[in-house]
Amino acid sequence: MRSLPGSVALLVLMGIPFARAETAPSWPDTYLGRVEVLAVMEGLNARLLASRSATATLEAWCADHGMAATPRLAARLQRAVDKPASGETRQRLNVGPDAVLGYRQVRLACGDHVLSEADNWYVPERLTPEMNRLLETTDTPFGRAVQSLGTTRQTIEARFLWHPLPAGWDQAPPATSACGDLAIPDELFRHRAVLSTAERVPFSEVVETYGAAILAFHRAARPADPTCAPSSPRP
């Protein structure tokens, strides 16, 4: 078995997703490259907002972009992690301050790509015993574990954490670039949503943060970007 490079092994020991260390996407830092990145982000954002299940949407995204030999989403459960639910979360779930809530943090991966991280607060008594068992003892994605409830989803917040294009870009001439790689942050956009049963009983609030790995697919060759700075002549 091939040993891991020292820097990557250190990241694994620290609990940092291996996929982020090895599969950072490469896009050109050009006007065209930034427009394409924004279009990709907007496209996935729209698909997620229109979907009842982020799990199913991310699996379809992985399959559509050929990102894994078997495009099936896996939830990497982060154990020994706890975040108390806020008063607003409890209000949206229609539970009192003393009600016991379950909490789960997972990193959703397709192949080597960690596509998102999800924080999930849920009401165990509104789920079946088998659902609670899956959530407590396995890495089953939340959406897959509760799919028999006929889940509906209400988005509370959706916002971009990074904008590839600067403010006012649509009224300014494209900036000239040296055409290196675009620096893409780990976190791109975030959703907060409440999940309810088919009978409209809320049972979960989830915060999903979508990362740079959603861009880590093969990008087709493009013509030379006209905003690239010309190379310096050789002496």
- How many domains make up the coordinates? 1
Helicity range: 25-40%
State the CATH class: Alpha Beta
Sheet bearing the most strands, described?
6 strands, antiparallel
Q: From the helix content, strand content and strand pairing, which structural class follows?
A: alpha+beta
CATH third-tier fold name? Chorismate lyase
CATH architecture: 3-Layer(aba) Sandwich
Distance between the termini: 48 Å
Q: CATH homologous superfamily, by name? A: Chorismate lyase-like
Strand content: 15-25%
Total helical elements: 7
Order of the strands making up the biggest sheet: 1-2-3-6-5-4
* C-alpha geometry: elongated
Can you count the beta strands? 6
Rounded mean pLDDT is 85
> What ranges have pLDDT less than 50 throughout 5 or more consecutive residues?
1-22
Q: Give the assembly state of these chains.
A: single chain
Give the SSE string: HHHHEHEEHHEEE
What is the gyration radius calculated from CA atoms?
Answer: 20 Å
